[in-house]
Amino acid sequence: MGEVYGEQVRPRRRWGRRLLITFIVLLLLVLGAAFVADRVGRSYAERMISDKVAEQVTNQKATSEKPAVTIEGFPFITQVARGRYDEIKIELANFAGPAGNNRTIKMKLLDVRAKDVVAPLETIRSGTGDIVAGTVTGVGLVDYAQLVELVGQPGVKLAAKDGKLTGSAPVQVLGQTVNVTGTAQLTVKNGNVVQVRFSNVSAEGLPDNPIVKGLVNSYVNKLAFDLRVPALPLKLTVQNVEATDEGLRVTAGATDVPLNSSGL
């Protein structure tokens, strides 16, 4: 009896193992198919957004490399189902655009992040309705070489010190050459213009009298300039500017941006 029982148990165990293996294989196939579908859907959406951004850059008479778009978060299909995306990253390398007076302002990278994107599934299916980003933020850097060109005065040097923009230049005053230094006040005007005005000026080796101060201040006024930031995609307008070791970091922002119409 013991041998017969053992012979009956062994086939059952083999069938159990086969069923388990079959289940695992099917599960892996389903997961693999879901992963592939997720990647295909994400890649398609990223290409569509990239094309739209590139189109707007061209319409604004600007240039950049093809926008690199990444839809953050996993899985993508889950975000599609709930109609909300946590963050979309859009990187525009070598962005450049017109800044008035036949000048072009360049940024090695314009880094854009769209967050709290609402895209109802029905809107995606029908192609009607709005896909809206709650907030969009863009950051780019304008190097000091470009800013020196805007100043247009010989010998000018710009740098960051204690988080502020400083400028220095050799000046001829009373028959001698002295180095004049000052700290710039950065003011954002009209959404895309950054006014740069120098104050707290000092000049070593000069007497402290009204005549000398007047001469120095007259020169310092020539150092003032306006940085006109090119039109940026996604309705971005300049909100803040800060001095860094590499140049002026420009931060732009926008809210409630429709990504499937004028926003792109």
CA distance, first residue to last residue: 79 Å
Whole-number radius of gyration?
A: 30 Å
**Assembly status:** single chain
Query: Globular, elongated, flat, extended or rod-shaped: what is the shape?
Result: elongated
Strand order in the sheet with the most strands:
1-2-3-4-11-10
Global structural class:
alpha+beta
Helix and strand run: HEHEEHEHEEEEHEEE
Q: Averaged pLDDT, please?
A: 77
Estimate percent helicity: 25-40%
How many E strands? 11
Main sheet characteristics: 6 strands, antiparallel
* Number of helical stretches of at least 4 residues: 5
**What is the percentage of strand-forming residues?**
35-45%
Low-confidence stretches: 23-38
Describe the structure.
The protein has helices at residues 2-59, 76-82, 121-126, 144-151, 210-223; strands at 68-71, 84-98, 104-118, 132-143, 157-161, 164-173, 176-189, 193-203, 225-228, 237-243, 247-258. The chain is an alpha+beta fold. The strands form two sheets. It has a six-stranded antiparallel β-sheet with strand order 1-2-3-4-11-10. A five-stranded antiparallel β-sheet has the order 5-6-7-8-9.
Short description:
By secondary structure, the chain is an alpha+beta fold. The chain has five helices and eleven strands; from the N terminus they run αβαββαβαββββαβββ. About 6% of the residues have low confidence.
Helix-strand blueprint:
Elements: H1 2-59, E1 68-71, H2 76-82, E2 84-98, E3 104-118, H3 121-126, E4 132-143, H4 144-151, E5 157-161, E6 164-173, E7 176-189, E8 193-203, H5 210-223, E9 225-228, E10 237-243, E11 247-258
Antiparallel strand pairs: 1-2, 2-3, 3-4, 4-11, 5-6, 6-7, 7-8, 8-9, 10-11
